[in-house]
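[Archive record]
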Amino acid sequence: MTALLILFLTAIAVLFAGLNNRSWLQPIALLGTLLALGATGYDLLGPGFGWGSQYASMFRFMPFALAFSGVAILATALIIGLSGWGFRNLNSTLGDHYALILFSLCGALVMFSYTNLTMLFLGIEILSIPLYVLAGSRRNEPAGNEAALKYFLMGAFATGILLFGMTLIYGATASFDLASISRAIGNGDQMPGMLKVGILLMIVGLSFKVSAVPFHFWAPDVYQGSPNLVTAFMATVVKTAGFAAFYRLFAIAFPGAEAFWSVPVAIIAALTMTVANVTALFQQDFKRMMAYSSISHAGYLLLAVLAIGTAGADNALLFYTLTYSLATICAFGAYIAVAEQGGDGSFAAFNGLGKKQPLLAVVLTLSMLSLAGIPPLAGFFGKYFLFTAAFAKYPWLIVLAVINSAVSIYYYFKIIIAMYFVRLHPDDSMPTGQTDSILLPVGVRWAVMLGLLLIALLTLVPGSVYGLI
C-alpha cells in the first residue's frame, strides 16, 4: 500500500513539474519508483508499515502482492532509466508520458493485490487506459495511430467479456469476494452452468490481456506501432500484472473448479507456445519478433496457472517474470540505441554490432540467450522452476514446452549471428569506427548494465528470489 501511495503522488508531482522544467522529470520519476521499490522491500523483508490487513475486503498487500510489485516497480525503474534517450524528442508532453507510465504501474499494483473482482476490473482499467494513450502518442505516425486504435478496441472487447464473466460468477455465487466465491464453489455438489460459462469468459478476457493464442492477434501490430519504451513496458510490466492477476484469481477463487478450467487453459497454453514460436521463425523485424517472443512466453507462464496447488508454483511464476522482464528490457535498451540512430528496426540493423558497439552486443547476446533458456543463465532457471512445478500434472505439456524452447533458439540466434558473423561491408572498404559508429547514451549504458548485473546475480544465486513468497 505504501508503494502504491508513493507512485500515485510521484505521478501527480511529475504532472505539475512538467509545466515548468522538463529537466527534473526523469529524476523525480526515477526517485519515486526507487522509493516505492524500497518501501516494497521493507514491507516484504522487514517489519513493514502495517498495511497488510488494511482494506482487506478489496485488496491486500501480502507477500505474493509485494513480491510481484517489486518486479513491476524494478522493471519500470529500468525503463525510466532508458527514457532519457527514448523520450529525448518529447517537449511539452514529456511530463504526461512519465505520469501515464506511473499511473499504469499503479494499476498493476492493484492487480497484484486484489481480493475482490471489482478491484480486478479497476486495476485492469487503471493499467490499460494510460497505455491506450501512450500507444498512440506519436500522432503523426500512421503505425502509432493503428496501434492505439487496435489496442483500444481489443482492450474494450476483452473488458466487456471479462465483465460478462464476472456478472455470471456473481449470479452463481452471490459474491465478488474471491474467498467467498471459493467457498460457494466448494459447498456445492455440482457446478451450475452459469458458473462454468462465467469462468470460461474470465479465461477468454484474461487471455486477451496477456496475448495468449488465439486471442493474440492484436499484439504484433500494437508492439510494432507503439513507441519503443512503451512496447518495453507492455512486454514486461503489463505481462507480469496480467499473469499475477490470472494466477491470483484461479488460485484463490477457482481451485475447487480446477477439473473444469484446467482443460481449456492447457489447450490455450499449448497453442500459444507453438503458434508463437513457429510464427516468430519468419519475422525480420526486431519488434515483431519480440512480440511473438512475448506471446510464446505467455504460453510458458500459463504453466504456472496449471500448476496451482503444486508447491513452488507461485515462486516459479515470480522468478520467471523477473528474469523475463530483465532480459526483455536489456534487449529493448540495446535496440533503442541501435534502431534510433539510423537503423530500420530489421535484423540487418544489428549487422556488425559486435565491432561497432561491443557492450551493446554483449548485452543483447546475453538477453537473447536468457530468453531462449540457455544454461546457465537466469532464463534457464526460470524455465526449470516453471517446468518442474507443472511436470507432475502435465508431463505432455512440458515436453511440448521443451520442444518449443528449442525452436525459439533459432530466431533468438538470428540476432547474435547478425552482430558477430555478418560483415557490415562486404568489401570491408569502410572502417567500422567512422560512419558506422553507434553512440551509447549514458542512461542506456547504466540501465542495461544494471539489468545485466541483475541477470548475473539471478544466475549465480537464483534462490535469492525463488522462495520469497
Q: What stands out?
A: Residues 2-464 form one domain. The chain has one domain: 2-464. The chain has a mean pLDDT of 88.
